[in-house]
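Translate structure to sequence.
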């Protein structure tokens, strides 16, 4: 009898485990439970494969590609297993689901405050009123990015994924109400990583009928004035508040009303820092911008000089030859430091003096002669050089932790506020102060003599240092996501337009994509890595839709995301190259657009890697030089040499061969590897598909001297493959193969 009772109880328990229960009851069972629930779907494919459903008790995330056809308002019954995914409780996998009805009214969003984005409201539709964005307001939303906001004195974020409807729309500058789904993504703990997932523009509700619909832009920059531009959704006035501090204090306006607004500010002087707040009035309603920072043109020389530490190709020079300083960038910096008169603001991600000249001694000597020296370094990197700087020079290390990335800048500002406008300068680029970065890794620095730009970089330094004085205010330091978009972005330097952006506050990734989109003829890229798929898609569009000639050099395939590598290798074949012609890391982060044409030759360069971390967490800086054939060509001389040397060489470890190349590539599957080696060796030849599967293996003996090795891969399907050759000593040659 007891045995029968036990069997009945077990059957009942098993049956009960799959009976439909409320979402609240399912959540209480926790990860590992298999449940059946019913609810109204509150999102569609704007959030990807995930769906959130809600009943009268709670909400739950469901992750399954089988729900691709499910849309908002569908009532579904679904069975599956609960798991924790980075602290988000979700159903995955789904064993079955049924659409019970469609077109249902969605649950009314519960009005909460940011601190209530927590477990109590996870996966539920909520509303937060009176929110103001603090991340790049007036800019545009981009993919795979968080955006901070404040409401009711509390802060939180919304997250915009790839292919989201908000991408490219304006980040509101005024107060808004936000509707979205409470979600969570955290590596650190169950109470971290809560975020609001807005679904489209309808989830951002403006509090005014008239709103500003474009970023605030600056034009007509001169030494005595500038013009502020914006647009609105309704007809309104064109008015400005402005001043030399964020307190503003002055007003001006343009006559008439309209949707397109331009207001001139006159009566200024060279290198005047100006804060502006635009507004437009429509009846009793007013749309305000946030306060933006701009600066007038300087009277500086505008001289710009770039230095490379590896070889360049002067045969493609359009007039000014690129300058290579092998093993001497450190000494060049010391020479600039030795000429400093009053101030040095020094940032460096990695500062280790083993193998390079003593920059710390130059900084100490500058301090000794009365120069105010301030220093910012990365709190997580090896920085033994910082320890050699005297204690009297105050230093700030960036904070560490999951919220922050790295302080990846390498800029130095010298004498920013000197009364002689031909003294201030900015040193920046991709070069850290280490033996490898100065002497081995392909890098560059650029030195710009311009007072207005030096002031902008000083503002950024002050924000991280927490002070405008020689002593940091540790209660006021701001790094990474804590920083604001509060520096000028637009300059006239040497008669040319230059833009400057600091990460993560200024939306740098959008500027990279914008630069790609503006290409008419050619794009040449040398960057250590590309992990953001939106950049790859922009490049794909430039090639396929605008017939742009694209060449890309990265340090290695492994440092790019699989999506990016797949898109680019299929798009341009062997015009996508890995750097393999020398030791070290190809460390540049540069793009040259329309070089050699009359169509706005442009150079984009700086410290910003093309990654999520650089855009969302790291402290970085980027410069864009417009309509500047001289700068574009100087950097093209580097690119031309490095790219051509790498093309068809592949990735060969030292000792594999004297020379090696693979051609034709792309081909129909028939390839030839030409190689010159010191001694005879046995070779193992492998070809892998992009999933890592070995699809061809063959062995062959190579003789000392020149060899021509045929590889027949014609039985393989069209696509991208990886060739690997290993000699008797274990040395390798790796190359991408394209079969068309």
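Result:
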């Amino acid at each position: 009898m007891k045995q029968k009772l036990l069997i009945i109880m077990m059957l009942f328990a098993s049956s009960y485990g799959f009976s439909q229960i409320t979402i609240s009851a399912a959540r209480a069972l926790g990860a590992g439970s298999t449940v059946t629930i019913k609810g109204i779907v509150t999102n569609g494919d704007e959030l990807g494969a995930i769906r959130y459903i809600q009943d009268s008790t709670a909400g739950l995330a469901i992750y399954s590609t089988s729900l691709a056809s499910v849309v908002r308002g569908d009532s579904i019954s679904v069975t599956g297993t609960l798991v924790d995914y980075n602290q988000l409780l979700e159903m995955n996998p789904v064993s079955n689901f049924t659409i019970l009805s469609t077109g249902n009214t969605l649950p009314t969003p519960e009005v909460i405050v940011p601190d209530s984005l927590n477990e109590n409201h996870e996966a539920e539709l909520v509303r937060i009123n009176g929110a103001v964005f603090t991340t790049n307001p007036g800019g545009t939303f981009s993919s795979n990015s968080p955006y901070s906001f404040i409401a009711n004195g509390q802060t939180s974020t919304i997250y915009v994924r790839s292919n989201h409807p908000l991408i490219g729309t304006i980040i509101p500058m005024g107060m808004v109400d936000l509707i979205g789904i409470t979600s969570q993504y955290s590596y650190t703990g169950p109470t971290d990583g809560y975020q609001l997932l807005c679904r489209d523009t309808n989830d951002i509700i403006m509090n005014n009928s008239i709103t500003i619909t474009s970023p605030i832009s600056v034009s007509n920059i001169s030494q005595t004035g500038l013009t502020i531009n914006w647009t609105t959704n309704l007809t309104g006035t064109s008015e400005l508040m402005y001043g030399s501090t964020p307190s503003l204090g002055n007003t001006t306006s343009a006559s008439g009303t309209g949707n397109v607004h331009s207001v001139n500010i006159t009566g200024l002087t060279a290198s005047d820092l100006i804060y502006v707040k635009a507004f437009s009035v429509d009846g009793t309603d007013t749309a305000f911008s946030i306060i933006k920072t701009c600066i007038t043109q300087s009277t500086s020389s505008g001289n710009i000089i770039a230095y490379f530490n590896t070889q360049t190709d002067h045969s493609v020079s359009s007039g000014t030859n690129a300058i290579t300083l092998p093993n001497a960038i450190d000494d060049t910096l010391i020479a600039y430091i030795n000429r400093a008169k009053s101030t040095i603001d020094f940032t460096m991600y990695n500062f280790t003096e083993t193998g390079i000249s003593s920059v710390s001694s130059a900084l100490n000597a500058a301090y000794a002669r009365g120069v105010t020296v301030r220093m910012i370094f990365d709190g997580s990197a090896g920085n033994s050089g910082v320890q050699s700087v005297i204690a009297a020079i105050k230093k700030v290390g960036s904070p560490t932790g999951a919220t922050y990335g790295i302080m990846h800048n390498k800029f130095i500002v010298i004498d920013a506020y000197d009364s002689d406008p031909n003294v201030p300068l900015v040193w920046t680029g991709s070069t850290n102060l280490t033996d490898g970065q100065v002497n081995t890794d392909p890098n560059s620095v650029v030195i710009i003599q311009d007072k207005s730009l030096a002031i902008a970089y000083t503002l950024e330094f002050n924000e991280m240092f927490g002070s405008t004085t020689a002593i940091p205010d540790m209660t006021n330091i701001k790094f990474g996501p804590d920083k604001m978009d509060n520096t000028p972005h637009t300059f006239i330097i040497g008669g040319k337009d230059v833009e400057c952006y600091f990460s993560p506050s200024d939306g740098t990734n959008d500027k990279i994509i914008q630069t790609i989109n503006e290409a008419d003829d050619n794009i040449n890229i040398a960057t250590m890595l590309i992990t953001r798929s939106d950049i790859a898609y922009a490049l794909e569009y430039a090639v396929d839709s605008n017939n742009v000639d694209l060449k890309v050099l990265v340090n290695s395939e492994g440092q790019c995301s699989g999506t990016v590598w797949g898109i680019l290798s299929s798009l341009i074949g062997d015009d996508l190259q890995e750097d393999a012609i020398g030791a070290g890391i190809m460390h540049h982060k540069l793009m040259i657009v329309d070089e050699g044409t009359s169509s706005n030759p442009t150079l984009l360069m700086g410290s910003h890697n093309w990654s999520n971390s650089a855009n969302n967490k790291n402290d970085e800086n980027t410069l864009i030089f417009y309509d500047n054939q001289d700068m574009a060509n100087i950097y093209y001389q580097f690119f031309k040499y490095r790219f051509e040397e790498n093309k068809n060489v592949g990735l060969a470890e030292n000792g594999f061969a004297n020379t090696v190349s693979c051609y034709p590539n792309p081909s129909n599957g028939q390839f030839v590897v030409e190689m010159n080696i010191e001694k005879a060796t046995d070779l193992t030849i492998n070809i892998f598909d992009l999933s890592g599967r070995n699809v061809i293996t063959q062995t062959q003996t190579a003789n000392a001297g020149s060899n021509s090795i045929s590889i027949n891969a014609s039985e393989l399907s069209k696509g991208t493959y990886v060739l690997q050759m290993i000699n008797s000593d274990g040395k390798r040659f790796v190359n991408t193969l394209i079969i068309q």
